[in-house]
Amino acid sequence: MMRWSVSSPRPPRSRLRSWLFIAVSALILLAGATTLWTQLRFSFRGVHATGRVIDFHQTAARSMSTIAEVEVAGLAPAPMRIIVQDTFGVVPWEKGIDVKLVCLALDGGEHRCVVDSWRDRWALPLAFLAAGAGLLAWCVRKR
């Protein structure tokens, strides 16, 4: 078995492993960029609305995430029921309370709404974007 000393060159690395790290970091960067683009669309083309909570439930035992059915008025002639996810649990969910939302009209007359919260809308896209860019820069620098 060959041992590497301090003065010897670095051991050979697998080219597949280095390309795999670059591909994974590029996918993380892409996920952050597309989610950030979606939130920018909500900011520039979305409409601020208020929805009344019809029903809600926690997604897991130790998770802060909540999924709620909300009735939103003002987007269409009749009130609409929309499913909303609160990833970080920023809204104190109770039946009958009003929740601030940002809604976007999609093609085909469908609407999509998100909770109007900085943490829910911007934290994960920016974290994925920063992690992907940092990991990609580290991988390219190590090559």
Structure in a nutshell:
The chain is an alpha+beta fold. Helices cover 39% and strands 27% of the residues.
Write structural notes for this entry:
It is a single chain. The chain has one domain (16-142). It is built from two helices and five strands. It has a five-stranded antiparallel β-sheet. A hairpin with a 7-residue loop joins β2 and β3. With 143 residues, the protein is α+β, with helices and mostly antiparallel strands. 39% of the residues lie in helices and 27% in strands. α1 runs antiparallel to α2. The longest helix has 31 residues, at 15-45.
Strands ordered across the widest β-sheet: 3-2-1-4-5
Note the run of SSEs as H and E. HEEEEEH
Q: Supply Rg.
A: 22 Å
Shape: elongated
Largest sheet: 5 strands, antiparallel
Query: Average pLDDT across residues?
Result: 84
In terms of topology, how is this protein built?
Layout: H1 15-45, E1 47-58, E2 66-72, E3 80-86, E4 98-105, E5 111-115, H2 118-142
Antiparallel strand pairs: 1-2, 1-4, 2-3, 4-5
Give the tags:
elongated, 2 helices, 143 residues, five-stranded antiparallel beta sheet, alpha+beta
